[in-house]
Design brief:
Layout (H helix, E strand, L loop, with lengths): L6 E3 L10 E3 L7 E5 L6 H10 L2 E4 L10 E6 L6 H7 L4 E3 L18 E3 L6 E3 L1
Parallel strand pairs: 3-4, 3-5, 5-6, 6-7
Antiparallel strand pairs: 1-2, 1-8
């Protein structure tokens, strides 16, 4: 059983949404990094502060219901909406806002963007 902590993540400059409170659990331990270059530093910071498990979503996958938060780097319309559509908390490192065919799922309760390290604080 994990000894997890919480972080609060707010929108950064040019960002939108949130704030999100992320707390991994034994059922949802993964800090899912879907940025194409291994574990993104933002995902690693969230994992370090919460005790969650960093996971490279480009090398493998886990079920949506096992993800505590997904960290993405999408400036378009694909990944931006996929994770919120599945009710997964989503952190975009780019300053995006709801757009595209999945925009209806991108809500401030599920999504925050423009996130840099200084937008992540321990609760």
């Amino acid at each position: 059983m994990g000894n997890y902590k919480s972080v609060q993540i707010v929108a950064g400059r040019g960002g939108w949404g949130g704030p999100l409170t992320v707390t991994p659990t034994d059922d949802k331990p993964y800090i899912y990094s879907v940025t194409g270059g291994g574990i993104h530093p933002i995902a690693q910071r969230i994992a370090d502060l919460t005790g969650g498990t960093p996971f490279d979503g480009f090398k493998s996958s886990v079920p949506f219901d096992k993800i505590a938060v997904a960290v993405i780097d999408c400036g378009g319309t694909a990944r931006v909406g996929v994770y919120p559509m599945k009710k997964v908390l989503t952190v975009d490192i780019h300053g995006t806002s709801p757009a595209g065919p999945l925009a209806m799922f991108i809500t401030k309760e599920l999504f925050v963007s423009g996130v840099k390290a200084e937008q992540i604080t321990e609760v």
